[in-house]
Amino acid sequence: MGSLAGKNVLLGVTGGIAAYKAPDLVRRLREQGAEVRVVLTPAAARFVTPLTFQAVSGHPVRDSLWDEAAEAAMGHIELARWADLALVAPATADFLARLAAGLADDLLATLCLATAAPLWVAPAMNRQMWAHPATVENLARLESRGVRVLGPAEGAQACGETGAGRMLEPAELTAALAAEDGDGSLQGRRVLVTAGPTREALDPVRYLSNRSSGKMGYAVAAAARAAGAEVVLVSGPVELPAPAGVRVIGVETAAQMQAAVQAELPGTDVFVGAAAVADYRPAEPAGQKIKKREEALQVALVRNPDILAGVAAATPRPFVVGFAAETHDLEANARQKLEAKRLDLVAANAVGPDRGFDRDDNALRAFWPGGERDLGSGAKRVLAKQLVELIAERMRAGHQAEDS
Ligand code: PMT
């Protein structure tokens, strides 16, 4: 059994030439332990017959909203509720446009609107269609709603052209789903995450901030959600869409972040501080735009509250996870933070102009009282999943120690 064991996967197939790869995708998803139900658009049924999908999935295939037998018991709603995750592969330009517009003009589009399951799309189309501003806009709109986009890849296309627009291979799609789908290890838990930078006003139009993009914290929030938790994300100003199923509270300053965290703390089982909170803020932000009169300007700064240490000092307190962003002496500084802030776990990353901040990848080492684990380097999404698994593991170890 693979890592999709027991998952109900709703596979939507739309009408592009890459549909011929979809039966192989069904086979691979089933090899990973998933239960797969296939829904075809009428155009997809012209490329591959429903009978093929029925044979490989082991279940009847639906391709119409007007199936009287299935709809006698509101079959489409039942199917939407059944799904743990929904994947549309291949997703044509036309389907993405309909999805972005929120249309429900066929069974698959209706299911995508009706399901609460995380939705993934694997675009496949001609390279010009992929680059067209209409498609770019539709994708951006879908991503801003939490739809996850897998691919496309670059290469030779069925139309004879070469470029971006090929559907990812079934093995790649299956691996991507398996890599990001959680193991339910935080089921029933409430997780509070901070992410992104804070901005501390100098005057009405200027602020002190840092290079945090929020990518690491958002990835942690998404991974915790995938692991079954209810997740609240307190975020500084970033350019990222809300992860699917995660409640985001937007803040600007450290003081606002602290207030939001304190308000959300009751009932929280796990707190993860991934935000790059400004340690200092201007003591007295100018009421008007500062004019350039002097050759040198001195700004007095005062300490901001330490949000993480505040959570660790609360009673009762959640399982508290901090990040340590270090330019030097990674381990010593991370261990110092673990102890000084009374953390249960610290994830340390080296930061600099070319690492840590504002990138899709990272490298993490985790430390806890009496132990450590190198999580290696890779995509922040992948590291976040490993970190969430480690958090669940350490929490279980803590409970076992309490019970014995
Ligand atoms: O956002 P990205 O571009 O993806 O970059 C990711 C990241 C490098 C910002 C992230 O991985 C990270 O390391 N976040 C913590 C950054 C940081 O402020 O580290 P620190 O070592 O200065 O702080 C230690 C811990 O205390 C952190 O958990 C921080 O959230 C917390 N803290 C710090 C100061 C403060 N006033 N309040 C806090 O809660």
By DSSP, the count of extended strands is 19
Strand order of the largest sheet: 12-11-8-13-16-17-18-19
What does the main sheet amount to? 8 strands, mixed
CATH homologous superfamily heading of the largest domain: CoaB-like
Quick structural overview:
This protein has about 400 residues and is an alpha/beta fold. It has helices at about 20-30, 45, 50-55, 70, 75-80, 95-100, 105-115, 125-130, 135-145, 170-180, 215-225, 255-265, 305-310, 330-340, 380-404, and strands at about 10-15, 35-40, 85-90, 120-125, 150, 155, 160-165, 190-195, 200-205, 205-210, 230-235, 245-250, 270-275, 280, 300-305, 320-325, 345-350, 360-370, 370-380.
Topology:
Layout: E1 8-13, H1 22-31, E2 35-40, H2 44-47, H3 50-57, H4 68-71, H5 75-82, E3 85-91, H6 93-101, H7 107-114, E4 119-123, H8 127-131, H9 133-144, E5 148-149, E6 153-156, E7 162-166, H10 170-180, E8 190-195, E9 200-203, E10 206-208, H11 215-226, E11 230-235, E12 247-250, H12 254-264, E13 270-273, E14 280-282, E15 301-303, H13 307-312, E16 319-326, H14 330-340, E17 345-350, E18 361-368, E19 371-379, H15 380-403
Helix pairs in contact: 1-3, 1-10, 5-7, 6-9, 11-15
The chain binds ligand PMT.
The site of ligand PMT has 28 residues, from helix 11, helix 13 and strand 16.
